[in-house]
Amino acid sequence: MTECTLSSAPAEPVRTPNISVVIPTHRDRGYLASTLRSLLPQLRAADHVYLCANGCTEEYLRTLATLASAQVTVLESPVAGIAFARNFGAMKSDGAFLLFLDDDDELAPDALEVLREALATDPAIVGVTGDVRTISSQGERDTGGVLTDFAAFEWERLLGGPPTASMGSALIRRSAYLAVAGLDETVAPADDWDLWLKLARIGKIVGLRRVTLRYRLHEHNASLNVSLMTQQALAVFRRHELAGESSASARRRALARVRRWYVPRLARASLTQARQLNLVASTRSIAAVLALYRATLRGWLPR
User: Fold this and answer.
1) Beta bridge mates, 106
2) Which end of the chain is more exposed for a tag (fewer CB within 10 A), N or C?
3) Rounded mean pLDDT of the chain?
4) Tens digit of pLDDT for each residue in 85-100?
């Protein structure tokens, strides 16, 4: 219970933490306008958006320049790669809280306030993530949730897989992000999982039973690169498993979570490739998924 005392001096207003939203963008796929429409009405006066042009053409840079405003800054990232662009935008920003939103996703209504309020309640919380719903490339809604485990976000549980399918569903404390040196570009596209594991070592991660992101499914999703995703996910697992000195039982539980998290998602990506008649990629992807499944059952992961 908070104790109040009377004073003749006026109370100082509590400063609401401001949010910096970092949106890497590489080319015009027709979704950025929808992303911004979902985001801009939710901004408070002190919030700011950073569009990080990531290896863009001159024509697309000119298009992005037309979007600049008092609350939207266009940055030209000197190096291609979404992880670098996120780090670049974060370092240029000044928000107390960071949101990394993809240029093809949509923020759910009131998501910023829900996440802001949850993260501001306790300085020991380093990150807050909500639930995710998928949408099609045409914007049609899907009722399926992507974030499935709200119960615990401690390091050992996170060793079995990331808490959410997209960083756009989450708000991260800037000081914590800097303390763990941000995203590791060498393990992209599993850099988000690596970041969650690093954050879990220094503070609390909270899951909200509230939809905060609409994740768009289309043919250019990074998760469709099954071979690379599998390779980098295994690299992240091995790195943190060794650093954490996991017990045998903890390792078995983590392998089981890797199997439950990655195998179904990578299998769906392989089927998507097959439907697109990319049979060579699909065959390789299915082989990678089966190898991962067998490895986790046997209690080891391939080097």
Assistant:
1) 214
2) N
3) 80
4) 999 999 999 999 999 9
